[in-house]
Amino acid sequence: MKKIVPLCILLILLYSCADMKPPKPETEIPEISTYYFIRHAEKDRSDPNNEDPDLNEDGIARAALWTKVFQNIKFDEIYSTEYKRTQQTVSAISLQSDVKLTPYSADNLYSEDFKMRTQGKTVLVVGHSDTTPQFVNKIIGEDRYPDIDDADNGSLYIVTVVGDKTKVQLLTID
């Protein structure tokens, strides 16, 4: 009888443990991706046949202003189209952040590859009057933002993605 009692206790413990469920894992905190979108600074329009002009004096000043605006933001990635005006707009920011410019094609905005490479990162994207709002629209999954007016070089779109939720802020920096 003395041997049966410990055996019964052991069986009861084993049986009760078999029904126990493992503890729930802590809820995962989704990664936050933050995208900053700007249009290139003012370009030299003196030669209407030049499809790849440099920045003009106002554009050089605006590029310096963007550098100040972003001085306290640590970018993980910086994307620019391959036009001189976009690269000149962001080159000082790239140096300041110690992040190499990555070219992107306006024909392939917000691909699955781009989404995966930038997930959980802080990213700056420099584009054009039509590509910048289109890129934002692709990320948010809506056709909310129209092309930027040709005289507007100071719009800043900040898109935050947390899980499947997106938030957009549109600021004007002058």
Describe this structure in words.
This protein is of the alpha/beta class. It has helices spanning 4-18, 57-69, 84-97, 112-118, 131-140, and strands at residues 32-39, 77-80, 101-103, 122-127, 155-162, 165-172. A 6-stranded mixed β-sheet has the order 3-2-4-1-5-6, sandwiched between helices. Helix 2 (57-69) runs parallel beside helix 3. It is globular.
Present the secondary structure layout.
Elements: H1 4-18, E1 32-39, H2 57-69, E2 77-80, H3 84-97, E3 101-103, H4 112-118, E4 122-127, H5 131-140, E5 155-162, E6 165-172
Parallel strand pairs: 1-4, 2-3, 2-4
Antiparallel strand pairs: 1-5, 5-6
Order of helices and strands: HEHEHEHEHEE
Q: Could you estimate the helical fraction of the residues in percent?
A: 25-40%
Radius of gyration: 26 Å
In DSSP terms (H or I, runs of 4 or more residues), the helix count works out at 5
> Helix/strand/pairing class, anyone?
alpha/beta
Beta-strand portion reads: 15-25%
